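fyi for ur records
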Amino acid sequence: MAGDENSLHAFRLLASRLLALTVAHPSAGLRLHFLERRRDRAVLASVAGPTAPLRLLDGRYLRVAVSLRLFDTDEGRRLKVVESSCQYQADEVGKAWIVRYDYLRSASGAHPPGHLQLNGRLTAVPGVEVGRLHFPTGRVPLEAVIRLLVEEFGVPTNEEAELWRPVLAESEAAFQAIAHRPLSGPAH
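which gave:
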């Protein structure tokens, strides 16, 4: 919640540690990509670039992109997530994506600001492409994405569950205490 340049770096450090403790390949890393040469806004993404994915221990990839910005508020300067996206994908370029969570603080349009997309076929409703549907989710933290990868997709972890589960739980509880909770659709 702090609102100085150190907040951006602290956010990167936390996300990096969570991923290194769990599903990230040792060669993967996160970096702040500062925008417009400004130190008050950045995109947290792979060290390889803002659109490059992180290699995971299962040989697949996770594209992480979190737009961060320092805002002046009534309570002082605060770090806020403007947009975030986490996409689990089978290939490095992202054509074989599996699941994606997106969040937009200020959504415009009919899509829910926080949503899930799946790459698959819906057999019960012919003609509906699942990958084009935006399932409302609210905001999904990185900790939940990591749990999904480990528990549901079987991505191996760097450390034992007895170590990473309590760390994820504590980190997610702190996130939930301050997280912006968007509506499931447009207000107007």
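Helices lie at 5-21, 142-151, 161-178. thats all i got for now
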